[in-house]
Amino acid sequence: MRLRRMLAIWAARFAGFACKKMGRQGVTWAGKIALKLDPNILKTLAGQVRKDIFVTCGTNGKTTTNNMLCAALEKEGYKVVCNHTGSNMLNGVVAAFALAAGLGGNLDADYACIEVDEASTRRIFPHFKPDYMVLTNLFRDQLDRYGEIDITMNILKEVMQSAPKMKIIVNGDDALSAFLAMDSGNPYVTYGISEQVIDDKESHEIREGRFCKKCGARLEYRFYHYSQLGDYACTGCDFKRPPIDFDATDVRVGDQLAFRVEGHPIAANYKGFYNVYNILAAYAAGRTAGLSMEHFNDMLKAFNPENGRMEQFRIKGCGIVLNLAKNPAGFNQNISAVMQDDAKKDLIIVINDNAQDGTDISWLWDVDFDRFRDANVNSITVSGIRCQDMRLRLKYVDIPSMLEEDVETAIRKRVEDGCGNLYVLVNYTALFSTRNVLKKIEGEKA
């Protein structure tokens, strides 16, 4: 059996190397081949993790939170297996373990930090039972793939109950996530923000958690942070926001994010209020597992989100930020992050409708694009497969845009004739190719 595992690991490494040479991501192919050669490889390698396995689930923030938790554990001196690229279905998870294993067929790791697609948990959990699940949030996402949120919640409840000892680190500010953790019967701890940080009363965002999952009555909010995240209580039963174990206080949002938790000051040079939750989730997970997290701020100073999550590039004097925006809640938070930058800026919005994106792009009509009028925007270019749909969406809020279907051409034009401050917002399948374009142009000699 060990020989079979060794062959699977060698084949996975070769597949990953070959795909990268061809300019492809390669990770999922590596996992698919490894699993074909050794169907038990994931179970075996996961069983070799010396301490704990964390999985991170939720609609938004999985990749950043998972990678941040991995970096925090490594900063504490531990060896960690992690699917850094965000390949979060079964083949991607298998690849993370197979590519981390030695050529002798064994894994040398203290912890595993694994981002898992919610719908894929049913295929992954039979191979191993995690010790902890970080649940970031539950928003509407890819209706043609996932269906309504209730379907996702039912899947997650099923897998939670299949691992009854798994402790859930849950965003207590999200009524849907909090109810799911409570209803699962699993042990759980909460993180959240108990003070109002921004005034969200004028927002036109779609609120997913308007009704109680326990009794169906309307939820009443003392305040919202964004979307359905906030301080809530049911008007018909005893369901309400749970007590918060890891509570962020003194939250400051701007060019730098800062807050306090457990009396410790936390600071990071990121934009976007949503990143407070990502940072808080990673911190809460480490602390729940018994780590001191004394080097957490040092990790944040060195941490580069990469993989298109507020990733920064510098090309011919132009500062470029690449960020993923794949559903209404995520896109609205992207818009808020852009608006935190008072300087004049160019925007490129890339929308695809491949199977992994969800072929239904009607969610664009639930995004508050009209807020770009107040964002000191120099120009907006729409690109990607569904660039015409994006242009039409902007037209309905009287925002002019330029159309350039080819992403590389769009970027080169804005670098050459833009204002020197560029934001590139992309949905899922546009992320890897756009990042490759930016890396390519960045590497060219001036």
Helices and strands in order, then pairings?
Elements (H helix, E strand, L loop, with lengths): L1 H20 L5 H11 L3 H6 L6 E5 L4 H14 L4 E3 L7 H11 L10 E5 L5 H4 L7 E4 L7 H4 L2 H14 L4 E5 L3 H10 L3 E5 L26 E8 L2 E6 L11 E2 L1 E4 L4 E5 L2 E5 L5 H15 L7 H7 L8 E5 L2 E7 L3 H12 L5 E6 L26 E7 L3 H9 L6 E2 L3 H11 L3 E6 L1 H16 L3
Parallel strand pairs: 1-3, 1-4, 2-3, 4-5, 5-6, 6-9, 14-18, 15-16, 15-18, 16-17
Antiparallel strand pairs: 7-8, 10-11, 11-12, 13-14
Helix pairs in contact: 1-2, 2-5, 4-10, 4-11, 8-9, 14-15
Question: How would you sum up this structure, described in words?
Answer:
The structure is a single chain. This protein has 446 residues and is an alpha/beta fold. 37% of the residues lie in helices and 20% in strands. It contains 15 helices and 18 strands. Strands 2-3-1-4-5-6-9 form a seven-stranded parallel β-sheet, sandwiched between helices. A six-stranded mixed β-sheet has the order 13-14-18-15-16-17, sandwiched between helices. Strand 10 and strand 11 form a beta hairpin. The chain is globular and about 60 Å long. About 1% of the residues have low confidence.
